[in-house]
Structures are given as C-alpha cells and as structure tokens.
Amino acid sequence: MAPPGVITSDGLAADLCCFPTLEQYVALVKSFRDDGFEMCVDLCGVDYLDHFDRWLPQGVEGSRFEIVVNLLSLSKKERVRLRVQAGDDAPEVDSLFALYPGTEAMEREAFDLFGILFTNHPDLTRILMPEEWEGHPLRKDYGAGRVPVQFKESPGPR
Amino acid sequence: MSDPNVRAADRLGLLTAETSEGAQELQRRAATNVDELSREVGSVLRLDGLTLDPTSIDFDRRDDETMIINMGPAHPSTHGVLRLMLELDGEFVLRTKPIIGYLHTGMEKTGEELSYVQGGTNVTRMDYLSPVINELCYSMAVEKLLDIQIPDRAVWIRMLMSELNRMSSHLVWMATNGMDLGASSMMIYGLRERELILAFFEKTAGLRLNLNYVRPGGVAADLPDGWQDDVLVICDTIYARTFEYDELLTGQPIFRNRMIGVAPLAAEEALALGVTGPLLRSTGVAWDLRRAMPYLAYDQVEFDVIVGTYGDNFDRYAIRLNEIRESIRIVRQCIEKMPSGDYRSQDPKVTPPPRARIGESMEALIHHFKLFTEGFQVPPGEVYSAVESPRGELGCYIVSDGTAKPYRLHVRAPSFVNLQAVSLLMRGGSMSDAITVISTIDPVLGEVDR
Amino acid sequence: MALEDLQHNFLTGPLEDIVRWARRASVWPASFGLACCAIEMMATGGADFDIARYGMEVFRNSPRQADLMIVAGRVSQKMAPVLRQVYDQMMEPKWVISMGVCASTGGLFNNYAIVQGVDQIVPVDVYAPGCPPSPETLMHAILTLHEQIRTGEILKRRHEGRPVHLDGTSELWTPEVPVAVRVGTPK
Q: How far apart are CA C28 and CA A35, in angstroms?
C-alpha cells in the first residue's frame, strides 16, 4: 500500500504504520490522500527525551521529537499511522495544511506545546497558551509546575 | 493624529491590553498573510497550483468600512469560554477567527503524572458533557496496550452507560440550542429530562457528572438492583418527550426560518477539515464509528445512523434529536440482552482482589496496595483508539514506556477539529446566524482546550 | 447607599435591616461558567433544583447588572485577566462564590496551566467544594452567603478588615444539611 522506499511496520489498532523521512513525508501523505484516505484524523507531537530507546524498525533513526499523523479512509474503513522523526534541537517539519486544511489547528497545538516548527503553515502562533508565554509546556524538560500544597491546620494570614 | 491601526478601545486606555492575545487575534486585512486570510474567509478546498491574490478577498469592502469585534470569552452564547473575533460589514460576517485556550488545563501533562487507574479521572473532565465516553476511549486504549479481554457483562454495561450519556449530552445540546435561539422553555425541558439520567448515574456510580466509572479492565461497580425498571422509566419518559420537542421546535415557523438553509456545509469541505460526528453526517456522509468500525457490542444491536442532506443547521438539529431516539432504542436492547457475569476482568494484573480477601490473605493485601499506590505496568508500545462521542470521533493516543504511568497521553478531541469549520460556516451570515452556528457545531471547550 | 457610612445607632438599625434584606433577597448572579461546574450551575437553575426560589434565576450577562459572581470551573492562566476584568466591572456590593475545587484551590490540576485558587485573583466570600459540587452544595453555599449578608457579617469584614469565622458561637443560622455537604473547614 505504501510507495517503495518508505519503511513500514504493523501498528497497534492501525492497518499500517509508516516511518517516512522528512523528505518523503508530504509526498507520502499526498499519495495516501490520492489513494482514498479522505481525512486526517489526528496530528500530534511526542517528546522522546526520557524514552529515547523506544522500539523502531530497522533503518529508522529515532530523534527526540516525533510527529504522529493518523489518516482515515472512509471508503475503505482503514487507518494508517505515520511517524516522522522531526529532529532533536530545532525540529522542523513540512506542514500538511495544503493537503488537509483540518491540520491547521493541530499543527499550531504541536508548535505551542512542543516547539516543532511547520514550514508553509498559514499562521503559526500559539493556540492554547497565552501570547507571552515562554517555553513549550509538554516538553519533558519543562516541569509540571506543581505548587506545594500548604498544610491545612497551619496558622496563616487567612 | 489617531493611528487607524490602533483599536479604539486601546486609545481610550481601557484594560484591553491585559487581555490581548497579540498575534493570535484577528488582524486588519493588510496585516494578514494571504493563506490565513483565505482561511478566515472560509475557503477550504485548495486547488493545486492556484495562487491567491490578497487584494481580491473582499475587494468591494474598504478596510475602514468594516468593523472588527470581539465576542467572548465571557459571553452567554459561546458555549463555554470561546473567544471569537469577527470582521463585520454591518450585520454580515466576513472573516472569523476563533481564539481558544481559555480553559487549557494541561490535562495531557497531568496525564503523564497519574497512573493508568487514576488516568480516567483526568480524561473524564475533558468533554464534561459525555464523561463516560471519554473514560471509555481511554480504557479501551489501555486495554489494547495490555492486550486483555473484558467480560461480556462489562462490555454491555459500558454500552448502556455510553448510550445514556449520549442521550444526556444531546439533551444538554437541545437545551442550550433552544436557549440560544430564544426558546428558553427548551432549556428547562432539556435539563429536566437530563436529571432522570443523572439520578441513574448517581445510583450506579455515586456521581452525577465526571463519574469515574469505566476503568481499564471493566467498570468500577455492578449495576444496582432494579436497574431495569429505572432505565425503562428513563426510556419511556424521554421517548414520549421527544415528540413534545417536535411540537415545540421542529414544526415551528420561526425556528425553521432561523435554521433551514443557514450555514450549509458540503461533504468535501467537511472531510478536508477533518470534521466528524453530527456535523459530518449532516452533509450526507454516513460515517458513524459505531456502524463502520464497531467497538464494544455495537454490531449486536440494531440502530440507524441518522444522515442529513443539506448540511445546514436544521439538519444538525434533526440529527441530534433523532440520535436521542436511536440511543433509546439501543438502551432498550441493552436491557433485554444484558448478559450475566463479572463486571470487570479477573486478570490479577489489572483488577484488585475482592475486599473480603484483604483481611485474610497477605498476598491479597500486598496486591491491593501495589495496584492502588503504584498501579499496573503496561507493556511498551503506542496505540490510537477511537470511539464515537456525541460530538464526533474521540481518539486517545497513548505511548507507553513500560512503567505504570503513560509516557504520552494525547486525546484527539472532536470539538477541537470541528471548530475549524466555524470560519467557513459563518461567512456571509448575519450575527444572529453566527450564534446558531456556534450552537449547532456543539463545541465543548473542555475538550477543545484540554 | 453604603451601609458603612451610616452611624450604626438605634435609629438606623431597622433601615439597615431592610437594606440587607433587599440585598440578600435579590442577588443576581453573573454568568461566569467555565467548565463542568457550569453544567451543575445550569442544573441548579433548572426545574429540579430551582434557583428561582431565591430570586436568582436571572443570570445577568452584563457584569454591571450583577451582584454575585459564581466562578464555576477551572481558571486557566489565559483566563485570569479576563476574570479580574469582569470582577472589576461589577458594582459594589458584590460577592464571589468559588464553586468547585478547581476554583477554590486548583483542584485536581496542580500544574502550570491552572491558577491554584481563584482567591489569588478576586476576594472570595464562600467556597463550595466538590468536583463538581452537586446542586444541593451550591444552594447551601448560596444560603450561607445570604445568611452572611443578612447579618451584615460580610460588610463588617470588608470595612473593618477582620476575618469571618463560622464557628458554633455565632448566631448564624445554617440550613439543615448532612455533614457531607457542609461548606468551609471547621476550626
């Protein structure tokens, strides 16, 4: 089903799982779209800083950031997952906006929470965090921001 | 003296600067690039090789003749804290840009710190109108990673609770939709019917809303004695009342004039935007995950998938009203066909021992302790699992690294993706149509912002 | 009219009582529903847990016309300035009920995105715990607020700067509710 040159494997709860390189990415998505995958269901980022040695098939070199795209074919009732290795320090990936306009908000979210840049995206600004927020919260080196809970019975100003 | 690019409110020195979201807001046409301009006017289908000329968009309206206004986030009809910036020419909407994030809770980050048993409490608060379905999606994803089977009774209980939740979610939608259009008695009726369902939830799970009921391995507790009678009362009452709503709304001329033909959506545009749920079915595409890719026991019950024709507001209203009736049909079949057996998997990896054994056996005590403090380990892998929520395809993508907590939890929220259709649907309509458009898209900001 | 400006003698007593009665019998909430608690707030306004019996079914959309802000739901960092702006636009006398654990303390979400307690932004009069608080809990919180308005405890506190203690020695009447839904931590 996938064009030659792209590494594939079986995916859990997906009919196929592909591992395109950055250059093969958009062409592969276009070939899937022409093949009957009408909808891009989900696009998300993952930061593998603490789990760098996850399983990857032979020939795929893992990087810190990964983009996971799920495509759905309504006519064939199939799902395909694509996992693109986006890079370690300054991750940059092509945008799928020209193929699937519905990825606009999802790519903005991946930029906002992970710092992954998407070239040719119409409006790459933060979407969930406030405008002046610094940092990308879902990265593994960004703390959860927990506030220590004070003991209830302690004498305080309130 | 006065710079036309500075908004009037800022010139007066009001507090808008503190609540300004800068580049996330709708800018003047001259300050927006052409791709984003064409997105804001709602052009979705991209023709290959065609370059767009920015001056050709709304060329007959001068920049200083239009008005950019801000709606929300604290607004009665934005269904939560959705902020919409609209460019208006008089009463008619030209460009729209939704600004979200006012309810961003960091649930995906919190999900990485909670164990798999606790994860349900986090996920359930995303789409707070259909909490059972959120938990179901998460539990199914975890069970796929664990590769365990759950007993039949648990499957059917999950299906019963999901359909009851679908009914209560659509009833809230009908209530708020009526309220937005001015039919405030519909608000009272919808909430009144919903109380019957919530009373049953409270009897079964202990909570009315955000019930932590569906967990990996099954459900938290068995259905109470006499549940068949309770559920039959719910079905009969609500079924009869859906015909009262028909009398109140469906045939009523003012309602019809406000909904028929307003904001039509075409099937290609919907598919390109990734829209699912009643919004997609209103365009004529008969895609319902319960029928196309059945999960739980949906292939063993009979129900119809309701499909619209024109993709306008009235189709979306009719779909949701009839989905209440279809859910009642499924619930009746659940009452008849409910199998007996365990309500959760007896796999010791996932399920704690029965409470009585904890006093007798040391192993049972240790097992219980480990399950509730550390949690169960899930083998490494990644999975994307999707269910049909009242708003569309709700998906859960979990990456597991072999420990007791998810490495990455991502929820594909249907409202987040459906909200991208708002620019397209509002274009050319009036402000009052804009309100009904937001209402019929049915966004739940908890899952949009997560 | 500000009750603090009166001289609190035997002549103004009945007048103050009438003003306080009017204030507590016609509290109009501003609609500030954010998340799941907003749904329970709507359910309180529905037919089963009718809030109209207190004269409060009109959720005013304009903060200028509202007396009470029920912060129902989790307040994110992006929403905090908006919350403060709506509170500032309300006119005195105004009260705040923090509904739910997310509004009271940050609740389940102790992370970068949620303000850990809305009392860091606006002064809160009554805290209603629960996730979400059932409509009975919200009504108990509202009745507690009414009681504090009736006896003038709230205005005294703001004026003199001393805290309010809900202990057994005050003459505040609290409605008969089970222990599980009692509001406020016991001293």
A: 58
- Does the complex come out with an ipTM higher than 0.85? yes
User: What are the E-state strand segments in chain A?
Assistant: 7-11, 14-19, 39-47, 65-73, 78-87, 92-94, 117-119
Residue of B74, B76, B106 with shortest CB distance to C114: B106
A149 within a domain of the structure (yes/no): no
Q: Tell me the CATH number at B156.
A: 1.10.645.10
Assess C185–A contact: CB distance below 8 Å, yes or no.
Answer: yes
Enumerate the H helices of chain C as residue ranges.
Answer: 13-25, 36-45, 80-89, 101-105, 135-151, 153-160
Structure tokens at B412: 């594909």
CA B353 to chain CA centroid, nearest Å: 35
User: Are A147 and C106 a contacting pair at CB < 8 A?
Assistant: yes
Determine, for residues A102 and B106 on separate chains, whether the beta-carbon distance falls below 8 Å: no
Taking residues B20-43, report their average pLDDT. 77
What pTM was estimated for this model as a whole?
0.88
Contact B202/A at CB under 8 A: no
Domain, as residue range, for B7 = 1-102+415-450
Burial B404-425 (b: 16+ CB within 10 A, else e): bbbbbbbbbbbbbbbbbbbbbb
> Residue B108 and residue A138: Cβ atoms within 8 Å?
yes
Query: Which one is predicted more confidently, C153 or B16?
Result: C153
Q: What is the pLDDT of residues A34-93, one digit of tens each?
A: 888 989 999 999 999 888 888 888 888 888 999 999 999 999 888 999 999 988 888 889
H/E stretch holding B67 reads strand B67-71
Question: In degrees, to the nearest 5, what angle opens at C-alpha C145 toward C-alphas C141 and C147?
Answer: 115
Instruction: Give contacts of B 41-100 with A, CB under 8 A.
Output: 44, 46, 100
Instruction: Tell me, yes or no, whether A58 lies in a domain.
Output: yes
Residue B80 C-alpha from the chain's centroid: 12
Indicate the fold that domain C28-160 takes in CATH.
Rossmann fold (3.40.50)
Cα dist from B183 to B175, B178, B437, whole Å: 9, 5, 16
